[in-house]
Design brief:
This protein is an alpha+beta fold. The chain has eight helices and 19 strands. The strands form four sheets. Strands 4, 5, 6, 7, 8, 16 and 17 form a seven-stranded antiparallel β-sheet that branches. Strands 2-3-19-18-9-10 form a six-stranded antiparallel β-sheet. Strand 13 and strand 14 form a beta hairpin. 47% of the residues are buried.
Amino acid sequence: MMGSVGGMYADLTSTLKTRATVLILTGGQSSSNGTGKGRGHNGSVKYGFSLVKGKANHPMEDYHVAKFVPHQGRELGLFAIYDGHLGDSVPAYLQKHLFSNILKENEFWTDTNTAISKAYERTDQSILSHNPDLGRGGSTAVTAILIDGCKLWVANVGDSRAVLSRGGQAIQMSIDHEPNTERGSIENRGGFVSNMPDFYNGGSLVLVLILWVNDESAEHDKTRILGGTKVREIDKFGDVARVNGQLAVSRAFGDKNLKTHLRSDPDVTNADIDAATEILILASDGLWKVMSNQDAVDLAIKIKDPQKAAKELAVEALNRESKDDISCIVVRFN
């Protein structure tokens, strides 16, 4: 998620133009894929994942978890997408610690909802107190815990999303935490929400330089050379609501500088996995920015191999010109 804009851009809120010249640096793409399986209520449960680096000039900031583990006589499927911003230290920490913190909660079996919520909050506190560098960056999270193949618990903060398919119909299991929808909470905490142009152009931009262009006759999307570096002139940026003009999600792990105005408590939902439940998709916003829940389900449900389904979702997002990191897990129940 390219969700955070440096503080110096927050002051530009009232003066932004619809036409600007922006220096773009793009990096090469890399990818990671994998698969596995566990036992389910109606046969084996299989999963596959695909991670594709976006075009921003920084390392991959998405992390994931996808595995089955034995725990107190049960089999747990643990699946997660962690979409970092301002570095990868926070998603890397979540990958290592969040599920173990959830399973350490004494109430996990008796009050799973409360246990997950407590673990999210305590993990965030650990991130913020660990050291100054760790808490400076941030991350969204969407986690799914499958118990013995028949009970699913989903939790999230931020805009990474979980979507279940039952009878071919997409069911969103998570809630996108966006500044506009949680404006009251942000303002009650002393923060504000302002709309900033989407410099990231779908997540791809590393913003290095802004030069305002006042020439209304300038050609749209014209490529120029500035000191030997290509810059692209982009017309009419779309507005993106941001907390304090900086962060495009209203809940996140980390983000120490904004934490007094942000929440890290998750929304938690659950579902029974029955014979009509086909697949679960977890993905970062690099997928959901360009694809609806139903589009994703319609594509993935036709592919029996979940790893191939996850890869095809990532490929389709790229075909639809997603520029952000794209991370996707597909779990097939039957």
